Amino acid sequence: MFEMASTPIQKIDMQNIDLEDDRYQISIQNNFNILCQSIQQMGVMRPPVIQNKESNFRVVSGFQRILAGKEIGMEFISCHVVPPDVSEYDCARWAIAENASQRSLMPLEQSRAVRLIEKILPDNATLCEIAQHMGLPSSQKALDHIRPLCAMAQYIQAGIANDYIALPIAHALTHFSENDARCFANLLKRLNVGVNIQRELLTTCEEIAKRDNKSVTNLLDSEPVIAIMDRYRDDRKQCIYYLRQYLKRVRYPAYTAVKSKVESNMKRLKLNEQTRLVPPPFFESDLWQIQVSFKDINELKDSFADVLSKTDAINTIIAQDIQI
Prior knowledge:
There is one protein chain. By secondary structure, this protein is of the alpha/beta class. It is about 55% helix and about 10% strand. Strands 1-5-3-4-2 form a five-stranded mixed sheet. Strands 6-7 form a two-stranded antiparallel ribbon. Helix 12 (about 225-230) packs antiparallel against helix 13 and helix 13 crosses helix 14 (about 255-270). The radius of gyration is 29 Å and the shape is elongated.
């Protein structure tokens, strides 16, 4: 790799830097306003690296610094200028190393780095070897997982970059139609939930759509879903709760109807606070449970007495015709 210390630092006219040439761009725009404020107050602490081309300069590293400088009105910026004969491979290695030296690369940045070195890989090297040498995910499984990210639709990449679309969900969305993928990505942007709920919503929506021969977009644009989203526009937690409940009712209508009926009947038992009657999971067996919490033997006796005094009512609940 070329020695950066030996490359001259020159004051470059912003207009002569080609920001459309992004072949070496690794970074994604993150905390851009903070970067602009920092440069405005302190100047550019680490000069970007650019390469001399025929009529202008290509950015090797420092895209965000140059963009921030342009944003705050800088006309000139001091940069390391790399000679035009420095190879693409060396420039790529520097771009990755310079970014990785400042922070842990995010998944999208890792994806860009992998795609970059893949394009200019020497004949005598493997992608796994070079990735490991550069501190990137290097197993074949990890590379297969990371490599496609930077080629996904921009709205999916935005979700990954802003942490409202988890990587497994991003991969799953690539198998959706364009409309369905965009619609579901917009839902996740609105809800901003963790990966487990993302997976639950995705699976439930897919299953409903397949069963009812409709698209995910049709489901999410339906009147009940829109009503929930509008009603709880300012209460994200309530919106998530009621949307999940609605989708479960649509996906499992028989189960949710039975569950609601059983829970209503159990409330009428009025068991004490330390005692719970627990139905079998999904009502797929005949095994019910009584759960009792107690601090001392007297509380335990009271709970047992309460349960025994209500055995007829409990028997009515567990003996009812439950069909799912």
